[in-house]
Each structure stands twice: as C-alpha cells, then as structure tokens.
Amino acid sequence: NYNSYKIDANLISISSISPLDEARLENYNFIIDITGIITPKDLTINIGDYSQNIKEFDGSLFEKEFNNDVATGLLENDNLFLNVSSQESKVGQYSFEDSSLDYILNISNQLGEEVSDCYDITFYGGMEIGKVIFSTRDLNLNDVEVVYDGQMHVSMLNGQLPSGISVRYYFQKDGGDREEIIFDNGILKFAPVDVGTYNIYANILSDGNYSIVGEIEFTSTLTIAKRRITLSFGELHFEAIGIKTLQIDSRESEFNISNLPLVNSHYLKGTISTNDEGVGKYSSESLIKDLNVYNEKDVDVSENYEIVCNGSIEIVHYYIVSF
C-alpha cells in the first residue's frame, strides 16, 4: 500500500570478485538500510453529466450510488463504492467542479481491506434537481355574491396546491387601481367590505422549484349587495295641523328594525316628515325621509344599506267645541 517503508537487506553474495576476496567476505556481516516509497496510483472518477444524473424536485437531497463503472485506473481486483449527494435539496445543478457535491468513498482490495488512500483521485461530473411541472388546469376561481355584513370578503381559489406554489390576491373596483388583498396567518386583514362590484385576481406564484403550466392569473367577480332593512314606526295620528316630523333613533325601543337586522354595533338615526301640513294620511311612500346608518365609530355607512319604511302619519281635524 501507499506509504514509506524501511527495508532491512542482508548481503548474500557478490559476483565478479576473485576467489580470495570472496573467502574474505565470510568475515563480514553486511546490513544495508534502504527506504522505499510506493506512490499513490492515479484514479479518475467520472459520474457523468447532468443529463445522466437528474431527478425531479421532491424536497429531499439528490443521493445516488456508483460502482467500478465510473472509475478509470482502478486495479483489477479492487472494488469501488461511491455515494454522492447534493448539498441542497432545491432545484439546481450540483457538481464536483464547484464543490457542491458531498460523497462517501470506499475502495477495498480482494481481501476486503480499505485501500482508498492508495489512490490519487480526481472527481468529475454533476447531478441536477429539476423543476416539477405543476398544471393549473384543475384550479378555478368562482364568482361570489354576498349581502353587506360589515366583514371583509374575497373569492378564494379552488384546488390543491403543493407547498411550493402560492397565491397572491388583488381586487379592483370600478376600473380603479389594483389593491393587494392582505392575509396574516390565513386571516383576512385587508379586503373589500363595502357594497359594490369588485374584480378579484388570483396570481399563481412558484418558489422556483416548480414550472407552472397553464393559466397563472385567474379572475372572478365579487358582488357585495346592499343590506335591506325595514324600519317600522306604526300608524301615527296627529290632531294639530302642521308638518309633522319624527325623530328616529334605532337605539330606542319604540322603533322596530326587521327583514335583516342592522350590522352589530350599527345604528339608524334621522328624521321622517310629512311633505305637507294639511289634514290627511301620509303613507310611507309620500313621507320625506332623512335617515342614515352609522357604525361604532359614528362613520356614515348608509351607502351599504337599503332602508325601507313601514308606517304612516295621519293629520286629522282639530275640533274646538264651545258652549
């Protein structure tokens, strides 16, 4: 094997000397010190190029085993075992030349002894982790219609997505700019709330380990309809002539909101008045309404409501009886 050795040699005989001198040699014991060096044998290992060693991305390292077939210069009775693996699990090319491959090498002789140190080894070749083909054929983004409830809404992409594929959502209203819909750990933080028709966009993104085939942007329509509420105030009678005005506040018990309730913490406030001061019965259709809905921050959110009134006001003659 490759190493440095000290060799002890005894002089047995010397040729081409006279018989007399040969007899005299019997009086001497010759010891000759010799140091010998066995140099390593050149060995080339070539595992092949990327096209010969390729696998599809699966989130794991690329690991492959090789034997004598990849070696040039290996002694006939020696056996080679080589395990090669990529240093990373992501899509890319890995080679001995750029030191991005790790390996475990064992060369043994016919006695089963490890002799890897007896070779001066040069490595060549590479391995490749290729992108996974992901088809968006089975994905879809459906239209959504909801009634205003003060909550955020979005239409979500339907279909199975691998871990390396993500979706980024945007919305657009009335031809305005696109705005990104924000999620935080799967919880909506910014999305359409108010009544209107919105275009929803879902963009398909890859982390670099997938090659996307098919549509990469899906669109749908989100419609948030007005919340229809009915305010009932009964049939009211007034004997005095003059315009009559009701002060409305839904937080007071005499006013009944039906059909759909107000969104939690919202309240209705305003006035309902007759359009004349004369005697007669004024139906809800003819009454003048100045009604608004406010949220818990006292912000007017009336555009999100359709308010229907149910009731009437009647002004009757006021009689004075004198004797």
Brief overview, please?
The protein is mainly β and 323 residues long.
Topology:
Elements: E1 3-10, H1 19-24, E2 31-38, E3 41-46, E4 54-56, E5 63-66, E6 71-72, E7 79-86, E8 92-95, E9 101-108, E10 119-124, E11 126-130, E12 132-135, E13 140-141, E14 144-147, E15 157-158, E16 165-173, E17 179-180, E18 182-184, E19 187-190, E20 196-206, E21 210-213, E22 217-225, E23 227-238, E24 245-249, E25 256-259, E26 267-273, E27 280-283, E28 288-294, E29 305-315
Parallel strand pairs: 3-10, 4-11, 12-21, 14-22, 23-29
Antiparallel strand pairs: 1-2, 3-6, 5-7, 7-9, 8-11, 13-15, 16-17, 16-20, 18-19, 20-22, 23-25, 24-26, 26-28, 27-29
What does this structure look like?
The protein is an all-beta fold. The chain contains 1 helix and 29 strands. The protein has one helix spanning 19-24, and strands at residues 3-10, 31-38, 41-46, 54-56, 63-66, 71-72, 79-86, 92-95, 101-108, 119-124, 126-130, 132-135, 140-141, 144-147, 157-158, 165-173, 179-180, 182-184, 187-190, 196-206, 210-213, 217-225, 227-238, 245-249, 256-259, 267-273, 280-283, 288-294, 305-315. The strands form 10 sheets. A 5-stranded mixed sheet has the order 14-22-20-16-17, with no helix packed on it. The chain has a 4-stranded mixed sheet with strand order 25-23-29-27, with no helix packed on it. A hairpin with a 2-residue loop joins strand 18 (182-184) and strand 19 (187-190). The chain is rod-shaped, with a radius of gyration of 46 Å. The model has no long low-confidence stretch (mean pLDDT 88).
